[in-house]
Structure formats: structure tokens, C-alpha cells
Amino acid sequence: MSACEDLAEAPRDIAALPPTDGCADCLAAGRRDWVHLRVCLDCGHIGCCDNSPQRHATAHFHNSSHPVIRSYEPGEEWRWCYVHEAMD
User: Fold this and answer.
1) N or C: which end of the chain has fewer CB within 10 A?
2) What is the pLDDT of residues 61-86, one digit of tens each?
């Protein structure tokens, strides 16, 4: 597997994220039908995964060009780079 420079440069986590009730965009739209949550490692945006109906984490990438997310699920620490389709 080739090294992804975006993953190499991204932090492992975002420090001091406030507790959340769920996907920020779903909550703003009055929805609660997300499956799993992801956090943007550039700005801390919490969005829902691609198995969720609205796919807000991926939409955030397309709108912001922030390339790396991390799972926001308890016990999961993997990260994903949208640009290089790479995981660590």
C-alpha cells in the first residue's frame, strides 16, 4: 500500500471536541436516521457515514475539500482519506 500524504499529515484526532447528539446536518434538518458518525480532522465537523441516507460526512468533503475523516464511533480509531481512498 502506498503512503497517503494526507493521512500522514492529518492529526490522529481532534482535541476537545464537544459532546454531540449526532450528525450536525441531520439534526439541523430535524432528522435522526444516521447509521454511524464521522469527524472531519480539519475542522471537527460531525457528519453521518455513507451507510446513512444523507451521507453528510462525504458531502462535507465535497463542499470543503477537507480530505481526512475519523470514525466518531466508540472504540474505533480508523481514519479515511477521500482524495486517495486510503484508510489507516
Assistant:
1) N
2) 999 999 999 999 999 999 999 999 99
- What does pTM read for this prediction? 0.92
H helices within the chain, ranges in order? 5-9, 24-28, 56-64
SS3 2: coil
Read off the pLDDT of each residue in 14-31 and give the average, rounded to a whole number. Answer: 88
Strand partners, 68: 81
Which residues sit opposite 86 in a β-bridge? 81
49 close to 80: Cβ distance less than 8 angstroms:
no
Q: Is 36 helix (H, G, I), strand (E, B) or coil?
A: coil
- In the predicted structure, residue 57 carries a pLDDT above the cut 60: yes
Instruction: Output the pLDDT for position 2.
Output: 58
